[in-house]
């Protein structure tokens, strides 16, 4: 089989064995495995990296354990505002949506923006109108109302605080995937529900091309998860690509420099998944853990949570 590979993440942060029950750990790993299988099946059948990352992210959006799609957290107003992006490494085409409500699979809408509009980034009610025009699936408010997410929100809804996903622990709840297909093309996709109790239509790095999501056949594909404000300021995804393109660093070296040195230096916590056109994978993070999985041709799926 040709050189194909996929890697995905389901969020990063203070994820410790002590805070996880065996049942919950098993459920997270099953969710990651299912998404990896969905994406890899596309690649194994000769499909595109774009299709693979979309399918993997859709799988994670449909799983309430992850802060994207069905599992999206509550805003200050008790709503769900979701962001997503997708990018093609072959053409540098990209599509993204920010602050959308009621969209069942935001990553699919992001791809529609890329392929069926003249734009890169649509937001809010305009993006929702675009989705309705294309008859993309919406879901009722109840679909997104996960009991665990609601409990998280109830704990801080009357304060000005926001939380990076889960309860008293710090978890940066974003999902994403990168892939290399048999034709040598890379792609990246990312999706998130943002921060619990976020206000003022806050948008993080996920839908910003070059910050949370980037793909370029000259270098690599990247999908990030972490404290979005830092990833925006560091332009993390594009910075890694630039280190490869202009400095000749390997994928591992570039990821190490940005995630474990540059981000750490000014307080940015999180991680990312990356793949280059040789099929090399990198899944670095500077937090206590990151929900992650990967699979390359001829290898078993690797699923992990902790350091």
TrEMBL record:
Site (Cleavage): 173-174
Top-rank taxon, per record: Bacteria
CDD domains: Asparaginase_2 (cd04701)
Binding site for substrate: 202-205, 225-228
Keyword list, A-Z: Autocatalytic cleavage, Hydrolase, Protease
Entries under Pfam families matching the protein: Asparaginase_2
GO biological-process terms attached to the record: proteolysis
The keyword Cell inner membrane is assigned to this record: no
Active site: residue positions: 174 (nucleophile)
UniProt-recorded name of the protein: Isoaspartyl peptidase
Keyword Zinc: no
GO MF, one example: peptidase activity
InterPro entries: Ntn_hydrolases_N (IPR029055), Peptidase_T2 (IPR000246)
